[in-house]
Write a structure and sequence with these properties.
alpha/beta; Vcp-like ATPase, Chain A, domain 2; Rossmann fold; 2 domains; 28% helix; globular; binds S-adenosylmethionine
Length: 237
């Protein structure tokens, strides 16, 4: 898959396909690749790009609410996820977090209990080019925790995260990291309480990002809505 862009517009297509918009028709060559500029029959130009992480967030078919790229950045930065790491993830949802982790080279096993969501996530990770190292398992992670071990990082974005956090010391290698995302402060408190029983370095953060308004009058933090997205709990085995 490639992206065809014109200003703010983006269209996902396979090379060899046709793109029809109000700007005209583009016959996409079978060998079209990043950097190419294609013209519609009306003379409008489309640039060709390959997909990168933020494009996955925008173009994956959505099921469960995906994590924002900035929160994924925190997960990767705080846990140090790197090439070759074994990561256990739940729930897959749209698969954006799982695909990002796959793109940095981690071997990801991700659980999704909704079979339809799992099927869509498999297509999404294939679109993201990481089907080789992201395995989507259909099932409830809490049913399988007793059979899993040896992971470098455990990432959870589920309401029942505390049940898995209670077994995190068995799932993680010594020194391995836990990262739990939650939209609610009550759930975050519960995760912290359970994590403190078996893990170390437990801390919780709220993730906020304020945009800057940059215009001819000056530059200042946006007076728009506070850019709150959720809470993250980190801990170490
Ligand atoms: C908020 S979404 C996850 C989004 C994902 N982190 C992303 O970036 O796209 C939560 C998903 O977890 C799934 N889920 C909830 N509890 C689960 C469990 N115990 N095992 C497996 N999947 C679970 C839900 O069906 C839902 O699709």
């Amino acid at each position: 898959m490639i992206l065809l862009t014109h200003g703010d517009r983006e269209y996902l297509r396979e090379p060899g396909e046709e793109l029809q918009t109000d700007l005209g028709v583009v016959e996409i060559p079978a060998d079209a690749g990043p950097g190419d500029v294609l013209e519609t029959h009306l003379g409008e130009e489309f640039r060709v790009r390959r997909l990168r992480g933020p494009d996955l967030f925008n173009h994956f078919e959505r099921t469960g609410a995906p994590m924002l790229p900035r929160d994924i950045g925190l997960v990767i930065g705080e846990t140090g996820i790197a090439g070759g790491d074994r990561v256990l993830d739940a729930g897959t949802g749209t698969g954006v977090l799982a695909a990002y982790m796959g793109r940095v080279g981690a071997e990801v096993v991700t659980y999704e209990r909704n079979p339809e969501f799992a099927e869509i996530a498999r297509k999404n990770v294939a679109l993201g080019g990481v089907a080789e190292n992201v395995t989507v398992r259909t099932g409830d992670l809490t049913d399988d925790v007793g059979e899993l071990s040896g992971f470098d990082v455990l990432t959870l974005d589920t309401e029942d995260a505390p049940d898995v956090v209670a077994r995190a010391d068995e799932l993680l290698v010594p020194g391995g990291f836990l990262a739990v995302y939650s939209p609610f402060v009550e759930a975050t408190r519960e995760v912290v309480d359970v994590a403190r029983e078996g893990l170390s370095d437990v801390r919780a953060v709220e993730t906020i990002q304020r945009e800057l308004d940059v215009d001819e009058r000056g530059t200042r933090p946006s007076t728009g809505p506070v850019g709150h997205s959720g809470y993250l709990v980190f801990a170490r085995n």
